[in-house]
Design brief:
This protein is an alpha/beta fold. It has a single domain, classed as Rossmann fold (3-Layer(aba) Sandwich), CATH 3.40.50. Helices cover 54% and strands 13% of the residues. It has ten helices and five strands. Helix 5 packs parallel to helix 9 and helix 8 packs across helix 9. The longest helix is centred in the C-terminal third of the chain and has 17 residues.
């Protein structure tokens, strides 16, 4: 298959649904720039926790994030339980979302071959100008998702506690006023609890190839 000149992919999904893995695999296969919006939120949480900020942190975040590259953020360890518990609440903040969206859009508008992963990508970030070429929505059974996250955290926290945290995060994401997590009508559902990694990549690839071969 000839190289696709333009390919903009939106990957949305619930907490620990496998969207990061899916986005990484598809980006590697099609040689796309991968942007994970969740990492920017998590890095923001890390900054706030580290500096013990309770309020008036918007100017602080603007200043810090404007000086840091996405490449630097992507190399940080941002999946601690403390950050996970903090970021769901932080992501509800409209002004924080505006800061993160601005950073994302700057990167997106300068790249025509990109995969963007998050929770409001198809519904907000890539809803128009530029609009996604194809969107995927990731979902996973909470019990399986909790087990996978438990392994990621090297079994340091109980599965029960992790499952409670994941359910809380997804509930916050779906119920927040600003850019809630939703599955857009034309998004392709990826059930990572029913598919292996190879099957996830195959399903995503088939839909992309069909899009450009028809």
């Amino acid at each position: 298959m000839a190289k696709i000149k333009k390919l903009i992919i939106a990957c949305d999904g619930e907490a620990a649904s496998g969207k990061s893995t899916g986005a990484k695999m598809i980006s590697k296969k099609y040689k796309l720039l991968l942007i994970n919006s969740g990492l920017i939120y998590r890095y923001s949480s890390k900054l706030i926790i580290k500096n013990k900020l309770k309020k008036d942190f918007i100017p602080f975040l603007k200043k810090k994030l404007n000086k840091i590259s996405y490449k630097y953020i992507a190399k940080q360890n941002l999946h601690s339980e403390e950050i996970s518990n903090h970021v769901g609440i932080l992501a509800k903040n409209k002004k924080v979302r505006e800061i993160v969206n601005k950073i994302q859009m700057k990167i997106i508008k300068s790249n025509s071959r990109i995969c963007v992963e998050g929770r409001d990508i198809a519904s907000k970030i890539l809803a128009k100008k530029p609009k996604y070429d194809i969107a995927f929505y990731f979902k996973c059974n909470p019990t399986i998702a909790s087990y996978r996250r438990w392994l990621d955290l090297k079994k340091k926290i109980s599965i029960k506690k992790i499952e409670k945290s994941l359910k809380k995060r997804t509930s916050l994401d779906k119920s927040r006023k600003n850019s809630p997590l939703i599955k857009v009508k034309d998004a392709i559902l990826i059930r990572t609890d029913k598919l292996s990694k190879k099957e996830v990549l195959l399903k995503m690839s088939n839909h992309i190839d069909d899009l450009y071969n028809n």
